[in-house]
Amino acid sequence: MANAISKRWAALGLFVLSTCLCYANNIQVANVTLTGQNTVDDYTLVEFDISWENSWRVVGGPGNWDAAWVFVKYRIGAGPWLHAWINDDGHSAPSGSSIEVGLLDPGSQYIPTSNPGMGVFIYRSSPGSGTFTLSNVQLRWNYGDNGLSDNEQVDIKVFAIEHVYVPQGAFYVGSGGSESGAYYTFDLSMGNDPFLINSEGAINVGTTTGYLYYQNPSTFSGDQMGPIPAEFPKGFDAFYAMKYEISQKGYVDFLNTLSRAQQSSRVRSDISMDVVMNTYVLSNTTAVMPQGRNGIRCYDYIGLIPAPVTFFCDYNANSIPDEINDGKEIACSRLSWADLSAYLDWAGLRPMTEFEFEKASRGIINPVANEYVWGNNENRATTFINNQGYPTESPDENSNCSAGPDYFGPIRCGAFARSATDRTGSGASYFGIMELGGNLWERPVSVGNPEGRSFTGVHGNGVLSSIGNADELQWPSSISAGGSSFRGGSWETEFERLRTSDRFYGANTDPVAYTGTGGRGVRSVLN
């Protein structure tokens, strides 16, 4: 997801409009305009075209589809970027597509000012695959509910993030193998049969026959306590998960809608003065080249506070922003828990849970002992990268993951999904979600401590605190990361960490950003 240079013109003589091109692994939004303003009911239609590659809707098997989560930000003059509230109906879905509104609280009734639409999912309405292109999509924006008058002068930006639908259904956690700290059903013979999750009801934990149990081989696996409340998202109910990890251009887009004070919290370099010493801002190093394949940077002269900093991708290190070989699609490393949760709050998403991670990886089929997220015990780590930094960046043909201490950084989001590759060859999950194993650590909410078990699946409201933290108090803390975990391994870990049920770090609450930390979000849906 990324923004191109904006252009401006008058729309209806009432609004001034800024358009943007948005893409993440070839998702594009273009030709944004405002039309159909209704000054009686105080709404207008945000119109745009959207297209993305490798789209699908399947019948049988996983029975799911991919989708674009689309949301709108606006600002008045030089003011802050704010989240536009979307109506629950009145949208226009072109032929062959469906629009599904994502409410702030999907489980409650739509209320324009307290439970508005935070965005929409757009997806195929019938089976198909390949590039999916739609023209003249229209979303009803209730600008009056956002407190705007009919003749405000506003800029808008439309953002899109690819997701995958994970349908409702029972599934297993734990593989029955020997993974560190994996879940299993407790019995007196100390077997390790997988545990079936067949509802969103509370789950008892402990050494009673039939209870969920897990061993604690490290100080990071959890407290082995419970119960896990009914409100904690188990993964039985349907949800959408980001198809890819946050890309570097996606994180740049996020940074470029924040205030200077908020930006300061979301980068590692000091941007409090008019000159930045370490311009690769997530590495915070004097090096003049990207470190660990993270090319997010700013210019050395950025102006005095309070002017926001403009960030960009510069993987080729020539100081020209966002060129085709600047690594915009490389997964964004060096994200702390606070960075990830702020991004998800801003986008109207939420953190996934440990159970949702296993559901998204394994799907609804029976586990394979010690399986990786692509469903078997076979791993083929990449040893080199072709076309580095380009949208066509790709690993060697026989690889399906980026992992192992001899590798040198994360790869482009979705790079392992090549022509004619099956699930194993592409490293995909059962539902078609990419890089859940390897590349960068996932950061689910843990069941292994009280802070994690208190999570109820609240979604982001599009608003951050004044210092750039997520303002959802019920989420794991932006300061301590209490309640968070590490799952799925990264490019720099041993292969066993990539296994679907490995929980060696299942209750690790480390708040620090590392070269192997990234993340993605999810969103609950009504069934």
Structure description:
By secondary structure, the protein is mainly beta. It contains six helices and 20 strands. The strands form seven sheets. Strands 5, 6, 7, 8, 10, 15 and 20 form a seven-stranded antiparallel β-sheet that branches. The chain is globular and about 70 Å long. The protein starts with 7 loop residues before the first strand and ends with a strand. 55% of the residues are buried. Residues 1-14 have low confidence and may be disordered.
Write the layout of secondary structure elements.
Elements: E1 8-11, E2 15-18, E3 28-38, E4 43-57, E5 66-76, E6 82-83, E7 97-103, E8 117-124, E9 128-141, E10 154-166, E11 171-173, E12 183-185, E13 195-197, E14 212-214, E15 239-242, H1 248-255, H2 260-266, E16 296-297, E17 312-313, H3 337-347, H4 354-362, E18 385-386, E19 394-395, H5 423-426, H6 450-453, E20 522-524
Characterize the main sheet: 7 strands, antiparallel
Structural class: mainly beta
Using the alpha-carbon principal axes, give the shape.
globular
Q: Which sequence of SSEs, written as H and E, runs from N to C?
A: EEEEEEEEEEEEEEEHHEEHHEEHHE
Mean pLDDT: 93
Number of strands: 20
Q: How much helix, percentage-wise, in residues?
A: under 10%
Radius of gyration: 22 Å
Tell me the fraction of residues in β-strands, as a range: 15-25%
